[in-house]
Amino acid sequence: MDRTTRRAALALSATLALAAPLVAAGSAHAVSTADRPTSSATADRPTSSLAAADLPELLAADGPDTLSDVVRDAARDARRDVATNRALAQGTKIPGAELDAALDALVADGAIAVTARVEKGARTWSGAAGTRERTGDAPARSRDRFRVASNTKPMIASLVMQEVEKGTWTLDTPVEEVLPGVMPADVTIEQLLSHRSGAPTATDWILASRMTDPSSFDEYFAVMDQEVTTADYVEALQSAPWAGEPGARYSYSNAGYVVLGMMLEEVTGRRVENLLQYRVFAPAGMWQSAYPDDPGVYGPFLHESAHTGPAGAGWYDLDHWDPSLFGASGAVTSTTEDLADFTEALVTGRLVDAETTADMLEPRTVDQADAPEYGLGVYRVPDPCVPGGWLYGHDGATYGTMSINLTSPDGERQVSIGITGRDLVYPALTDEPLYDPGALLTLMMQETC
């Protein structure tokens, strides 16, 4: 393998290993296939011919800070700045000019488009910068839609908790009771919601299993246009290395949320798309949100592009990829306004009752230093405005878009961001990312005080 090909393979290895965990908050640590937990229902099931040893680079790369770390660090920076800036802490308005300048700076650094929103009681600021398409000239607008990726997860978690409230199941209900043979017998709903099942994230495995050349970015992006079914995720659960035993530790898993979507469809007899529309989008007032299962975008939408640097062919435009790749773990499209409406609805009792909300917000991972403080589909970061307080929400990243959405627990303050143009080779081949969303997010958090 020549030097150029080796560099491409290394960058793509990091991309495949990290793309799915970055889709919300965490990095899985692979164990050998022999250590994968099994149950009587799965032990005899045939597995894929694709073995972990076939893809050593694709599965061995361990990542840098995840997007949740960026959010946490921004919250801490905002808290420090507010504590040392009395005028800011006692401010009575949102200075839009400074925020507008921060949007422009992010695009100048390399983002294609950014749309952002700050809500503080009755006052709202929203803005956008950049262009809807990498090669186009239509300006991005504050109400443009984008792929929210793992900001889908708290929406799925809300549906699951609605079923818990109905008595359909409890948090301790084993997956095995609802979907026999899909997961080890001791994996529970609570473990899936909090990413403590030990299941692989699986998205990376599915993509890798469809490739013949692990150094080819062209092939990597080409296989994204193939449909991914729930059966593909089940196959990956049987074949990919697991991160550990159920309940042992936090390890981010897209597959866990795909399974939750399967469970919801099994007990309700309705598609996830339908459940989200009538039990999340409508009550939250999310009129611009959808759950697509086919490639392509339409209307005022921020198109996705991935940057591969010198290891690939620079930029790849990604309108072709199929959102079924993420399914219930991350297929929703939305706007910053709708995302803010969702978190407000979640914490103010429009989706689940107050006791259920409190349970969702309570982190299950505080004893694990390398994990975000993750509850049931929601994590928390320090609230810069309230000493000892917290902001709650999620983040998400597809292969060309990042999103962040946070709220105060009373629903009075929200920040939400969508950014297109994602750097997929940092830090495998570069010391610095194309851009850093942390500065914008810090400023937005400060402006809610």
N/C terminus separation: 54 Å
**Lateral arrangement of strands in the main beta sheet:** 2-1-11-10-9-8-7
Integer-rounded radius of gyration: 21 Å
Q: Mean pLDDT, rounded to whole units?
A: 84
What would your notes on this structure say?
With 449 residues, the chain is α+β, with helices and mostly antiparallel strands. It contains 16 helices and 12 strands. Strands 2-1-11-10-9-8-7 form a 7-stranded antiparallel beta sheet, sandwiched between helices. A 3-stranded mixed beta sheet has the order 5-4-12, with no helix packed on it. Strands 3-6 form a two-stranded antiparallel ribbon. Helix 6 crosses helix 13 (272-284).
Question: Topology, please?
Answer:
Elements: H1 3-22, H2 56-60, H3 67-84, H4 86-89, H5 96-109, E1 113-120, E2 123-130, E3 146-147, H6 153-166, H7 175-178, H8 189-193, H9 203-209, H10 217-222, H11 230-239, H12 254-268, H13 272-284, E4 305-307, E5 315-317, E6 333-334, H14 336-347, H15 354-361, E7 373-374, E8 379-382, E9 390-397, E10 401-407, E11 413-420, E12 422-423, H16 438-446
Parallel strand pairs: 4-12
Antiparallel strand pairs: 1-2, 1-11, 3-6, 4-5, 7-8, 8-9, 9-10, 10-11
Helix pairs in contact: 1-9, 3-16, 5-16, 6-12, 6-13, 11-12, 13-14
